[in-house]
Amino acid sequence: MSKGVFVFALIIAYVGSTLAAGGVFVSKEEASNYLTREKRANSGFEEFAKGNFEQECVEEICNYEELREVYENTAQTNAKWDELTRQCENMSPCNDIGTDTCQNLWSSYACHCHAGYTGVHCETDIDECQQNETCVHGICINGIGTYDCVCSTGYEGDTCNDDINECENFDNLCQNEGECVNDVGSYHCACASGYTGSDCSQDVNECDLNLCPEGSQCEHGANSYTCFCPDEGCGASVDTQLQQAVDP
């Protein structure tokens, strides 16, 4: 049989099978699925051989044209392309609370977490309190996706590492003209003469210090004291000391 006769016989056979299936013509959309397809001219054989998915799109990243050669059908190709390139939208794989953004990758995805979360799907809360010096001078309280520092007295700031200058921030910390001195994490009062206590509010009782000469009596006053003798006197030597104290 000649080559021309053989080709003609194939055409007759195809037309016969089509008629038996119910008609000669197919729809415009169906015909477009099979006829509208760009081919890569890598080899003459590839123009006729159906593409292999593993070879085209698993062993390497393929493009839409290569995927189209695998499925030979626009609808199937579009469905597979959507599956491979839109997993964030199709699957919603990332944790809603812990995720900042979901990034589509080829046949995969990547979840980018908010601060305070970790894990493949941003599903794990980070316990910041387990990290060193989260709250330097305070107590760390872990929360969902965050933490709080409860600072010790005298400190402030996000990590409780800022010293509070009480002398600048607060008034009247030291009484009776005492001087406020700022310390790291605290302060103290340098009291004027005659006063004592943490805020210099206590008057010193000099009579308790035995400052008067023996035989004399002590009278305490506001930030002062007076040594005196009873009516019968204290003796010449004591009287002299008292007189010198009054008239130095």
TrEMBL record:
<feature type="disulfide bond">
    <location>
        <begin position="113"/>
        <end position="122"/>
    </location>
</feature>
<dbReference type="GO" id="GO:0005509">
    <property type="term" value="F:calcium ion binding"/>
</dbReference>
<keyword id="KW-0245">EGF-like domain</keyword>
<feature type="disulfide bond">
    <location>
        <begin position="191"/>
        <end position="200"/>
    </location>
</feature>
<protein>
    <submittedName>
        <fullName>Gamma-carboxyglutamic acid protein 3</fullName>
    </submittedName>
</protein>
<keyword id="KW-0301">Gamma-carboxyglutamic acid</keyword>
<feature type="domain" description="EGF-like">
    <location>
        <begin position="125"/>
        <end position="161"/>
    </location>
</feature>
<feature type="disulfide bond">
    <location>
        <begin position="94"/>
        <end position="111"/>
    </location>
</feature>
<dbReference type="GO" id="GO:0005576">
    <property type="term" value="C:extracellular region"/>
</dbReference>
<keyword id="KW-0106">Calcium</keyword>
<feature type="domain" description="EGF-like">
    <location>
        <begin position="84"/>
        <end position="123"/>
    </location>
</feature>
<feature type="domain" description="Gla">
    <location>
        <begin position="40"/>
        <end position="86"/>
    </location>
</feature>
<feature type="domain" description="EGF-like">
    <location>
        <begin position="163"/>
        <end position="201"/>
    </location>
</feature>
<dbReference type="InterPro" id="IPR018097">
    <property type="entry name" value="EGF_Ca-bd_CS"/>
</dbReference>
<keyword id="KW-1015">Disulfide bond</keyword>
<keyword id="KW-0732">Signal</keyword>
<feature type="domain" description="EGF-like">
    <location>
        <begin position="203"/>
        <end position="235"/>
    </location>
</feature>
<dbReference type="InterPro" id="IPR000294">
    <property type="entry name" value="GLA_domain"/>
</dbReference>
<keyword id="KW-0964">Secreted</keyword>
<dbReference type="InterPro" id="IPR000742">
    <property type="entry name" value="EGF"/>
</dbReference>
<dbReference type="Pfam" id="PF07645">
    <property type="entry name" value="EGF_CA"/>
</dbReference>
<keyword id="KW-0325">Glycoprotein</keyword>
<dbReference type="InterPro" id="IPR000152">
    <property type="entry name" value="EGF-type_Asp/Asn_hydroxyl_site"/>
</dbReference>
<feature type="signal peptide">
    <location>
        <begin position="1"/>
        <end position="20"/>
    </location>
</feature>
<dbReference type="InterPro" id="IPR035972">
    <property type="entry name" value="GLA-like_dom_SF"/>
</dbReference>
<dbReference type="InterPro" id="IPR049883">
    <property type="entry name" value="NOTCH1_EGF-like"/>
</dbReference>
<dbReference type="Pfam" id="PF00594">
    <property type="entry name" value="Gla"/>
</dbReference>
<dbReference type="InterPro" id="IPR001881">
    <property type="entry name" value="EGF-like_Ca-bd_dom"/>
</dbReference>
<dbReference type="InterPro" id="IPR009030">
    <property type="entry name" value="Growth_fac_rcpt_cys_sf"/>
</dbReference>
<keyword id="KW-0677">Repeat</keyword>
<feature type="disulfide bond">
    <location>
        <begin position="151"/>
        <end position="160"/>
    </location>
</feature>
<dbReference type="InterPro" id="IPR017857">
    <property type="entry name" value="Coagulation_fac-like_Gla_dom"/>
</dbReference>
